[in-house]
Amino acid sequence: MKSKIITLAALALFVVSCGTQKTAPVAAAEPATPPTESAKAVTLTPELAEGQNLYSNNCAKCHELFEPKKFTQEEWTPILVRMGKKAHLDAVQMTSITNYINSQL
User: Fold this and answer.
1) Which of 10, 35, 78, 79 lies 20 to 30 angstroms, CA to CA, from 97?
2) Helix axes 91-104, 73-86, angle to 10 degrees
3) 76 against 17, higher pLDDT
4) CA distances (Å), origin 97, targets 5, 30, 36, 44, 71
5) Global pTM?
6) Tens of pLDDT along 10-64?
7) Considering only CA atoms, which of 60, 79, 69, 55 is closest in space to residue 104?
8) 28-40 burial, b if ≥16 CB within 10 A, otherwise e?
9) Which of 103, 105, 78, 90 lies closest to 54, judged by CA?
10) Total Cβ atoms within 10 A of residue 70
C-alpha cells in the first residue's frame, strides 16, 4: 500500500514538473518605438488632469472605462450627456470631463 502511494506521489510530481513552462527573460532594454502620429502625447494641464480624475473616479464606479479614442467626438457627446445625468455630475464637472476626453482624441 505504501509503495502505491509513493508511486502515485512520484508520478504526480513528475507530471507537475513537466507541465510547467519556462519562459525566457524579457530583455530589460528593448529599443523604444518612436511615437506615431496617432499616438501623440498630450501634456495634461491641471484642468485636464482634473477631468481625467473625474472620469476615472466617477465612470469606473459603474462600468469599465473606455479609452477616449474608442469613440469619435461626435459619438462621445451623447454618451457624456447621458452618463453625466446618471452620475449626477454638475455642468462644471461635465465640462472638465468633456475637455479631457476631447484632448485625448
Assistant:
1) 35
2) 150
3) 76
4) 64, 35, 25, 12, 15
5) 0.59
6) 555 555 555 545 554 555 554 444 444 444 556 889 999 999 999 999 988 889 9
7) 69
8) eeeeeeeeeeeee
9) 90
10) 9
